[in-house]
Design a protein that fits this description.
6 helices; Arc Repressor Mutant, subunit A; about 10% strand; two-stranded antiparallel ribbon; about 160 residues
Amino acid sequence: MKLSTKGRYGLRAVLDLAVHADDEAMALSQIAERQSISMNYLEQLIAKLKKAGIVTSIRGAQGGYKLALPAEEISVGDILRALEGDLSPVDCSLVTSNEGICSNADSCVTKYVWKRISDSINDAVDTIKLSELVAESRKVQAGIGTTDTKAKQTCGNSVK
């Protein structure tokens, strides 16, 4: 399974919001600049995250966006599913009845493999909380635990 830029950039944007917002609303332009994401694309991602209840908007002069829930209550899986949809590697791993999905549905033995992979992916992303990523980000920014400058980059962008 390969995540699209929606999932990768969206996770970075939510992490940026969690690290820098300090419970205050943040302008999207700040996130876009720090994460090197175009404003138009970021607006699309934030709209999906808002609809999923992960971020909320604040109107007014000091308005912007902030997390709708504490970082401890938001999993990486919540964020990725809000942006990517289901995380299963193949459609048939999602359902017990495969009518219309695959002509071999009734005799497919490999469905077991896809289901196990799907379960493993979902278990992994659901156990990682945004608060853990915030803590890791702060360690990286402080230079704790790594002296490798490449480790201080996320997806080719320097952590600022």
